[in-house]
Amino acid sequence: MCGIAGFISDRITPDEGRVIVGRMNDAQRHRGPDGEGVRSVCEAPTVVLGHRRLAIIDLSPRGAQPMVDSTERYWIAFNGEIYNFRDLRAELRSLGHSFHTDTDTEVILAAFVHWGQEAPSRLRGIFSFAIGDRDSGRVFLARDQMGVKPLYYFCCSEGFLFASEVRALLASDYVPRRLSREGLASYLMFGSVQEPHTLVDGVNSLPPGHFAWVDCADFVMQRYWSPTDFGNDHSFHQSNLEAIPDLLHDSIGLQMVSDVPLGCFLSGGIDSTAIAAEMQKANVSPVKSFSIIFDESKYDEREFSRIAASEIGTDHQELCLTGELVNRQIDSAISAFDQPSLDGINTYYVSGLVKEAGLTVALSGVGGDELFVGYDGFARQLQFQRLFGKCQHVPSGLRRIAASAIESAAKTEKAFKLASLIRGRTNPYFVARQVLAPTQITRLVKRELGLDPESWVTEWQTDSLSQSSHLDTINRISVLELQHYMLSTLLRDTDQMSMAHSLEVRVPLIDHCLVEKVLSVASHHKLDEKTQKPMLVHGCRGGIPDQCVYRPKRGFELPFEIWIRESLSGRVSDTMLRSNQPLFSRHEISGLWDRFSSRRVSWGRVWMLFILDAWITEHRITV
């Protein structure tokens, strides 16, 4: 796990390019405290690669990057881990390649030399990398199938820049610190910026399962993998269902490969408990596990994490997260956000706990709910789908009138969602996931910004919906969850908050080989009236304690409802009530604070706006 950066230009000298990439490297030092490298790959045009190293496999200096192949033509900067690198290395050796390190980096380079742009599809892991060609001056970029590892880019008249973090691109001094209107609409609607957008105008992410060829004249992007290629019931075979236990065991086992100490997050839910159980089966000594607990009993899950740790036999540690602790460290936590998010704070603190225990790698259950059909979100989605379908039988003119009437009188989040469903421009999946409805955003944001959130979401959702139109309802919701909520909230938050502590977090439940099989199983195998996520539970072959399987299901939440009214009240109210609001109507934002203070709305919108304001201030973003 590392950080990469690069610059391609026919206007900037190699010396200047190295300085620029050096600044970008410095901005993401936290991603790689174990080493740094900047290398000029080509001088006409200028191609410079940069790398920050977090050493996990082959800790020797031979693993330093950027790394060159034996011909000295191709250079690579790589972020992530390749779990099948030993199998690939054996295959490539049989094809005539030789190796001088025990790194997965060298295997990627040899795979690219041998298979070209087909190489990413052979990789099983989490990755983003850049390979520069000394002879042609071209750069090949690639990102892993699920989008676990980030890769951002920006194109301007001076050249093409890319990096693992948006803050690194800003540090180049070639990216204007200007707010993206699309990114803002996305953030306000969903509580996180939906890919490929960012909050910085002109900065985008390379989508998951894509590669791109870049030179001074062109940027050509191509998809090599997508979850929408699977999930059709007609492709179901009994063998897919029977393969799940072995694939689950294989995925977790492969992701335990490390030359540094590793552990796992353990909440006592099915996902994290499944991982801890499989890890412990493969270990002689107790696996180190970690969880967050709370004084507020409504949110605390220590009963289940302790049961799981005791039954499985892990060496368990806890951090009691209080409002006072969050208040003391809130500036550091906000600084960790490369892109702001409504969620993510919990990952920041548990990652700090793991790092303080001396570990560099942790396994997480992220993605289990989205892939294995967990939590009440799927039931809510189905309700929204049914209501949306009924509304489509009503003439559009009547729907607009009804929606407007509801919005004008609406005082609850449910009312605004109902109006969005009736209006019918936003797909019910996205309505269920929205924090603010388009009409609420229009009222909140100053008119002079010219924001049109409804037009944005209507256009943005079209591509995703068309790709998944062939799937049955449950598999379609699952794919949309993987492509949107998991990608743009869970995975991004996990990466940025863990890497702030120089901690690598691995996510074995969304190994792409496992995803392919699970999505190829018919939906009725994923539902059970008695058992949450039956495919995952059965896949663990009895390794999950019954108390964790049959516990009441609830999503992981922090006690922000309490904290914002108590420990964090001063900080948040100062932001919400200050007079010089650059983005929002003072009347609307003070009204929102009043409604929160009188318990008429929940904490989510208030916290989302607080985080956004702090992020804009820290990164000096202009409107």
TrEMBL record:
<keyword id="KW-0067">ATP-binding</keyword>
<feature type="active site" description="For GATase activity">
    <location>
        <position position="2"/>
    </location>
</feature>
<dbReference type="GO" id="GO:0006529">
    <property type="term" value="P:asparagine biosynthetic process"/>
</dbReference>
<keyword id="KW-0028">Amino-acid biosynthesis</keyword>
<dbReference type="InterPro" id="IPR029055">
    <property type="entry name" value="Ntn_hydrolases_N"/>
</dbReference>
<keyword id="KW-0315">Glutamine amidotransferase</keyword>
<feature type="binding site">
    <location>
        <position position="104"/>
    </location>
    <ligand>
        <name>L-glutamine</name>
    </ligand>
</feature>
<feature type="binding site">
    <location>
        <position position="292"/>
    </location>
    <ligand>
        <name>ATP</name>
    </ligand>
</feature>
<dbReference type="Pfam" id="PF00733">
    <property type="entry name" value="Asn_synthase"/>
</dbReference>
<dbReference type="Pfam" id="PF13537">
    <property type="entry name" value="GATase_7"/>
</dbReference>
<comment type="pathway">
    <text>Amino-acid biosynthesis; L-asparagine biosynthesis; L-asparagine from L-aspartate (L-Gln route): step 1/1.</text>
</comment>
<comment type="similarity">
    <text>Belongs to the asparagine synthetase family.</text>
</comment>
<dbReference type="InterPro" id="IPR014729">
    <property type="entry name" value="Rossmann-like_a/b/a_fold"/>
</dbReference>
<protein>
    <recommendedName>
        <fullName>asparagine synthase (glutamine-hydrolyzing)</fullName>
        <ecNumber>6.3.5.4</ecNumber>
    </recommendedName>
</protein>
<dbReference type="InterPro" id="IPR006426">
    <property type="entry name" value="Asn_synth_AEB"/>
</dbReference>
<feature type="binding site">
    <location>
        <begin position="364"/>
        <end position="365"/>
    </location>
    <ligand>
        <name>ATP</name>
    </ligand>
</feature>
<dbReference type="InterPro" id="IPR001962">
    <property type="entry name" value="Asn_synthase"/>
</dbReference>
<keyword id="KW-0061">Asparagine biosynthesis</keyword>
<dbReference type="InterPro" id="IPR033738">
    <property type="entry name" value="AsnB_N"/>
</dbReference>
<dbReference type="GO" id="GO:0005829">
    <property type="term" value="C:cytosol"/>
</dbReference>
<dbReference type="GO" id="GO:0004066">
    <property type="term" value="F:asparagine synthase (glutamine-hydrolyzing) activity"/>
</dbReference>
<dbReference type="InterPro" id="IPR017932">
    <property type="entry name" value="GATase_2_dom"/>
</dbReference>
<keyword id="KW-0547">Nucleotide-binding</keyword>
<dbReference type="GO" id="GO:0005524">
    <property type="term" value="F:ATP binding"/>
</dbReference>
<dbReference type="InterPro" id="IPR051786">
    <property type="entry name" value="ASN_synthetase/amidase"/>
</dbReference>
<feature type="domain" description="Glutamine amidotransferase type-2">
    <location>
        <begin position="2"/>
        <end position="217"/>
    </location>
</feature>
